[in-house]
Design brief:
single chain, 278 residues, mainly alpha, 11 helices
Length: 278
């Protein structure tokens, strides 16, 4: 059998530093079966000892909705029509983003342990984190539909746009996940710092409140927040019963693609060096 040609994507050469972008994409595709296995493993582990099992994914957003509905509808007297639907349409897409990127930050230990024994592209860990969160997002649509039916809220044809919203959100989430995963592979305190950042980021995103109540001097924070457009892209087809505006769609898509490209470039340039210092 002839020796493998130099640069063969099926062969990992530890002497080659600085991963080729296209080659890394090919390797991620080649290991797509491993991504599916990691997603399946994480879901099984998460619900293995849970009494409610996978039902917890559906119950959790409902409990959050009840608490925040009381706080923001009764205490603050916010005039938001059908607050439960308004809140859930923002919270579910936020929970997807926060769960995926937060999980990616915690997977660096698994990545080190596994890649010390056998070569696999470390990007599979980020892909699996996003995949698990995406499964939970789809399951979470069940309690959302329940609330919509219970409150006699109309289900409109614009729901067909949701897959597009999810794809844009997933691309953005992958980009942020790659950045967090790469930096967490080098700096141990990135995970804790990022989780704290998520808490502040949540309240800077119009999920539990309407952006119209934000004073003008603080609107820049809302407008500069990329999750504002991702949330609106998901909320508009359900809550407003209309397709997102071209402006919202264009900004959200541009941000998602730019973030993904930035994340991938950082990952490809640094992950090998960072991981070798772990």
């Amino acid at each position: 059998m002839p020796p493998p040609a130099k640069g063969d994507p099926t062969i990992y050469d530890s002497d080659v530093h600085g991963l080729d972008l296209l080659n890394e994409i090919r390797m991620l595709y080649r290991y797509r079966h491993l991504v599916r296995e990691l997603i399946s493993r994480d879901i099984k582990i998460r619900y293995k000892r849970s009494v409610l099992g996978i039902g917890w994914t559906m119950l959790s957003p409902l409990l959050n909705m009840v608490a925040l509905t009381i706080a923001f509808s009764a205490i603050l007297k916010q005039a938001i029509w059908n607050y439960p639907v308004y809140y859930l349409t923002g919270y579910l897409i936020w929970a997807f983003f926060a769960q995926a990127t937060g999980h990616a930050a915690t997977l660096t230990v698994d990545a080190v342990e596994i890649t010390q024994r056998i070569y696999i592209p470390r990007s599979v860990f980020v892909a699996s984190a996003v995949g698990v969160a995406l499964v939970n997002l789809v399951l979470s649509l069940v309690p959302l539909l329940f609330i919509i039916v219970a409150t006699l809220y109309p289900v409109r044809w614009t729901w067909v746009f949701l897959p597009v919203s999810m794809v844009v959100a997933a691309v953005f989430t992958c980009g942020v996940g790659l950045v967090v995963f790469t930096l967490a592979s080098r700096f141990a305190d990135v995970k804790e710092t990022y989780l704290v950042l998520l808490s502040s980021w949540f309240f800077a995103t119009p999920i539990v409140y309407s952006p119209q109540i934000v004073p003008a001097k603080y609107r820049l924070i809302i407008d500069a927040n990329p999750m504002t457009y991702i949330v609106e892209l998901f909320r508009a087809p359900i809550y407003q019963g209309a397709l997102p505006s071209l402006r919202t769609f264009g900004i959200a898509t541009a941000i998602a693609l730019a973030t993904f490209l930035l994340g991938w470039l950082l990952y490809a340039a640094k992950i090998e060096d960072y991981a070798s210092r772990s």
